[in-house]
Amino acid sequence: PRQRPAGPPSPRRARRSGGRCCPRRSPATTSRLGWAPPCLAPPLCPRPCPATCSSFVLLSITVVTWNVGTAMPPNDVTSLLHLNTGETNDVDMIAIGLQEVNSKINKRLKDALFTDQWSELFMDVLSPFHFILVSTVRMQGVILLVFAKYYHLPFLQDIQTDCTRTGLGGYWGNKGGVSVRLSIFGHMVCFLNCHLPAHLEKAEQRKEDFATILHMQQFEGPVANGILDHDLVFWFGDLNFRIESLDICFVKYAIDSNVLSQLWEKDQLNIAKSTWPVLRGFQEGPLNFPPTFKFDVGTNKYDSSAKKRKPAWTDRILWKIKPPSKGWGAGGHRPSQGVLSVSQLCYCSHMEYTVSDHKPVAAIFAVQFASKVDKPQVEIYVADEWSRPEQAVVRYKMAVGFHRSSWDWIGLYRVGFRHPKDYVSYVWARSDDGVSGLQVMFSEEALPKGNGEYILGYYSNTSSSIAGVTEPFQISLPRSEEGSSSTDSSGSSSEEDDSTLVLLAPKSRSPSPGKMKRHRSRSPSLAKFQGLILRPSSRDRGTSRSPSPQSRRSLPRNIPTIHLPQEELGHHGVKGKELGQAAESPEGSSFYQTVQEQGSLRHVSADSPLARADPRNLGLLPALRLEMIDQALGQRWESADQGYYPCRKMSPTSPPGCGTSPKEGCNP
């Protein structure tokens, strides 16, 4: 079958990410890419095109901010994200900033174990439109989510997050800022979501807190260490600026009469942009929508309580382009002239949402810049269709200078996946010395059965991001006799997914498998108890969703219990925690143990899923029945002293142990 490289999946992508300023297409470019980048419309060309013109990228970025007031998510957010207008087909990235998400102690404990409901909602809504969660960061009730179309993922690199507390003198995170910074086609962009102090008289405090956030947030790397060092900054959130001087009656009259311009000059943020040096260069579109605070919850009526708060534009979205660098380049032009331009296409509030005393605000931007990166770091080649297991061969090559790791892996994703760790199965990427002609193969057990569309992605552990993707391709394999499994067919997406838990741990080497059960136990304290019998509940038997292909094999019915010791076994030379260092991939899996007889020796098989279970990850187990035992393993520990202890097969979640790479192992 024809080999398919990772190229533009549709003409729309070519228009968005490969347009050229020149009115003529280059035949050489057409021959090299296999598709002709279309010309940009004249309004998008900022200047007359020179004889040699570099490729330009035009991205559409949507930014949303909403103070949700500890409310539960609404049933529908399609209008907020402009999903029902046809505009989303042209949107490439979406940044969502939330404030005052419920962060009471019981809610925070639940969100620490499971993905918070707001993040789940946005992933559920956006994944059918091929948006993938690129990064997320949370500081108590302040959350920032960044999504992008899947085919942009290889061009989104150097992803980092940071947060700064400013509440209670910097000790409490109810106020402050969270940020996600990343390189987009070689340009450094930062999204900053802030919740600043409230009340009319706290304008100076808001200024000081914003300056503190800018000063405290620092990123690693040779460029763009501070927020304002980025080529483009989006600053948004509940900034809490109010309307000065005017009384509440005049403010409401101006709103009812739709003469909002009479309120602009008294808006504290508009005043501050011209007087505060820290805000120099920040831009904002016209406030042509009514003030977004404060409403009676459940209505579109401004505050009718005894406090009768004056309406104000507290929820704002601004942007700043880094000033051109000093000095003149060749030809008498500044080096950064014409490199980056931003146009705001939409700036509006959404009055239809009444769950909070704030109204959400959204803005759509058209961002155009010269592309510094036109090829992914890893190019993946795959057949148009896998109809037989022997066709599941993946060829790929890495760009010169790509920093590969022995922990890199290639994931198989169903079309409509939610985040880079929401894969169906994976294989380890080879770490050969050569950078071209590399090849791996998925085992038959790891392949989904049935018909469906899938995507392959190369996950780089060094950058914690996807460095290469393919176009969607077809997998058509016969189903098993028992019927289709939860991973079969592209349409089985009705189950809820808690797999985003691993996203909260950016150093995790393995993605969470999709389609997990809501009812499983995830208590992190389980790993602290050594004297436990761990048995899977009946509803979890035979439904392992471990990313390890080996764990997909059918399991025996009569499975013995694994006994963990009650006391330290240091006098035997084996510690209890070593038993669990055989983790293949513990997330969302049911664990069993196979006991083999070798004469009088009984030991744990290294190929068993239980032998790969890591007790440190017991917080990710399904529901378990826990029973105390009176004795330890007895002779099994004595056998371990004699060198018969099994060595694990490494997985993305397991730290280096036996062997120098995840492909190496050792015999018992």
From TrEMBL:
Residues 483-493, 544-557 have a biased composition (Low complexity). Residues 1-11 have a biased composition (Pro residues). Keywords: Cytoplasm, Hydrolase, Methylation, Phosphoprotein, Repeat, SH3-binding. The keyword Phosphoprotein applies. GO terms for cellular component: cytoplasm; plasma membrane; ruffle. It comes from the Eukaryota. Residues 57-374 form the Inositol polyphosphate-related phosphatase domain. It holds the Pfam family Exo_endo_phos2. SMART domains: IPPc. It is an enzyme of class 3 (hydrolase). Its EC number is 3.1.3.36, 3.1.3.56. One of its GO terms (biological process) is phosphatidylinositol dephosphorylation. Residues 1-29, 476-559, 644-668 are annotated as: Disordered. GO terms for molecular function: inositol-polyphosphate 5-phosphatase activity; phosphatidylinositol-3,4,5-trisphosphate 5-phosphatase activity; phosphatidylinositol-4,5-bisphosphate 5-phosphatase activity; SH3 domain binding. SUPFAM superfamilies: DNase I-like. Its main location: cytoplasm. Inositol 5-phosphatase, which converts inositol 1,4,5-trisphosphate to inositol 1,4-bisphosphate. Also converts phosphatidylinositol 4,5-bisphosphate to phosphatidylinositol 4-phosphate and inositol 1,3,4,5-tetrakisphosphate to inositol 1,3,4-trisphosphate in vitro. May be involved in modulation of the function of inositol and phosphatidylinositol polyphosphate-binding proteins that are present at membranes ruffles. Belongs to the inositol 1,4,5-trisphosphate 5-phosphatase type II family. This is Phosphatidylinositol 4,5-bisphosphate 5-phosphatase A.
